[in-house]
Amino acid sequence: MPPTRTRSASPQRVRARRVGDSGSRAPTKAPQAASSDMRHLFALEAQRMQATRLRERAAQEQWRERTRTLDEQLEEERRIAKENRPPGHEWRGYQDYEVELLRAQCEEQVASLQADVLARDEEIKRLRDLLGQYTQQASEQASAQHTWAARVSDLEAQLRTHDARTQQLRTEASDALAHTRGLEARLAEADALRRHLHNQVQELRGNVRVYARVRPAARADPVAEWRYPDAALLATQLEVHVPSESAMGHASVKTHAFAFDHVFPPAATQSDVFAEVSDLLQSVLDGYHTTIFAYGQTGSGKTHTLEGGAGIDWQHAAHAMDDDAGLIPRAMHMLWRTAEAQRTHGWSYTFEAQMVEVYLDQVSDLLSDASRRCEIKHTPTHTHVEHAAVEPLTRPEDVYALLARAQKRRQVAATRMNERSSRSHSIFALRVHGECTRPDATATTHATLNLVDLAGSERLAASGSANDAQRLKEAQSINKSLSSLADVISALAAQAKHVPYRNSTLTWLLKPSLSRGAKTYRT
Ligand SMILES: Nc1ncnc2c1ncn2[C@@H]1O[C@H](COP(=O)(O)OP(=O)(O)OP(=O)(O)O)[C@@H](O)[C@H]1O
Asked: Which CATH entry fits the domain spanning 269-522: 3.40.50.720, 3.50.50.60, 3.20.20.80, 3.40.850.10?
């Protein structure tokens, strides 16, 4: 460390200050006094300078001592360094030692750097491997992308083809729709024509037709012989050959010949009978009232023909459509089938039924136990029997339950009123409401199909009613209603101006169905 030097004021400066001082103070001071001060001042200055020289000399001495000590320390360190220098290295002074130190540091750094380089090499290798993997993946992805691009391009081409095809199909569909509309219009016309022609055919066959059905003989030795001369052709003729004996005892055979629209021999099945009248059912769906009467004496097979064989148990529907099933269940099944087929022409149908009987010119309900007197009301579309149940039918089998109910009611009445069923007319009325809701045409139809089981037609004498007041009353009522029916049918057949519907409850009840335009059939 260099010695700290303190600056002392120079004699000139001191002197100058003194001169100034004297100048500002008393210019009148004596020159001798001033000279003495100066001398004193110089002496003081000389002393101070001497002291300074002494101090500087001491400091130099101190520095010299310090330098010597440092030199000795340096020499000692060199010696130690020389002793500690590594073998094979020539000592070339302190710089060599520093060089060695630096070299050692450098080697240490080099080793560290080499380790670092190795680590980095490892890292680089790992990264290279990774890069390789990524490159391969990228290559695979590029390949997959290429494949997908090709697939997308392929699909786009397919899509374009499909679009074109869809467009073409749309055009075709539109053409087909227009064509279908045209066909529908033609179909509607054809349907209307079919209805018209069907009606004409029915009219040509006769709006009033009479069929005869001969039931199998109940006895082994029948009193008469029944013949069917044209059975193989038209089956319209029936001959009854009755053996007789004259008063003279001559035996002869009396022949009674009849002609009908169709004759069913005893071997005719329920299905044969239904086939003959089934075209009427189309008329019902087309909106024409239709009535089928079963007429004949007690036990001749009216209920058998209309409802079915005596063995049918309507409570158990499984037996309902066997061979013995009559016109009512068969008609229901056919109506539903035909109505279903008509759906494609835009027609839908609803069905509802009433079952009533006319006994002693009074109408009563066969479907309910209520004993209220029923009233006949004619509406513009159908005849309604007030206070009688109206049952909607949603499937043909629904009718079995109605027949079962009616059968039960008739049995109750039979025990109470002595075989009343033979002495009442029972009417099954099916109301059919059709609605056409095609876009090009709307129409509705209302028609009723009446299936009438007429009361036994035996003569008063033959039935033995003459001696029984109740039976007599019943027989008179039956005869009156049957002859009224005959009158109405005759008037209709003769196209008379006045048709006597009001002459009996039966004809009044069936008025709309017997009016012109309606179809009436009697078996
Ligand atoms: N074509 C037929 N084949 C077989 N059996 C028949 C035939 N017609 C009627 N029968 C049978 O004759 C019996 C009487 O028939 P059904 O009850 O139908 O007569 P009906 O005319 O209705 O009598 P009623 O006037 O008393 O009601 C029944 O057992 C029935 O099964």
From this structure: 3.40.850.10
